[in-house]
Structure formats: C-alpha cells, structure tokens
Amino acid sequence: MKQKELLVFSIVVFLTVIAWMIIDIYHVRNSSLINKEFTPIPVRSYTIDSSILNILKGKVK
Predict the structure, then answer these.
(1) Cα–Cα distance, 39 to 55 (Å, whole number)
(2) Cβ of 55: how many Cβ atoms within 10 Å?
(3) What is d(CA 40, CA 43) in angstroms, rounded to the nearest whole number?
(4) In the predicted model, is pLDDT for residue 10 greater than 70?
(5) pLDDT tens, 17-55?
C-alpha cells in the first residue's frame, strides 16, 4: 500500500469514527429515558386498624 493510499484510508476511517460519535451523541440526547414532564407521586400516610390485627390474631390461635 502506498503512502497516499494509507493517508486516504486513515482520513476516511477518522471521519467515519467522528461521524459515528456525533450520531451517537445526537441519538442519546434525543432519546432520553427520563420523562421531562415528571410529576412525583404524592406520599400517603397509612393508619393500621388494630381491630383487623386482633381478628387475624384470633384466626391464628
């Protein structure tokens, strides 16, 4: 392989890698997994009904 052919081949490979990186970065930026309109789920407070626990204790015995 002559030096001119090697230079052309190297330039083509270099440009291909650069294009691949640019396309990959573009793809990652435009296909985000996080929803931009995220609304957090409200936290609920729960209470334990002791009468249900007493009924369950009675069924175990």
Answers:
(1) 39
(2) 10
(3) 9
(4) yes
(5) 999 999 999 998 888 666 566 677 788 888 888 898 888
Which three-class secondary structure string do you get for 34-52?
CCCCCCCCCCCCCCCCHHH
Residue 52's identity, in one-letter code, is I
How far is residue 22's CA from residue 28's CA, in Å, rounded to a whole number?
10
Structure tokens given for 31: 């296909």
In Å, how far are 12, 46, 47, 51, 61 from 56, measured between CA atoms?
A: 75, 19, 17, 9, 9
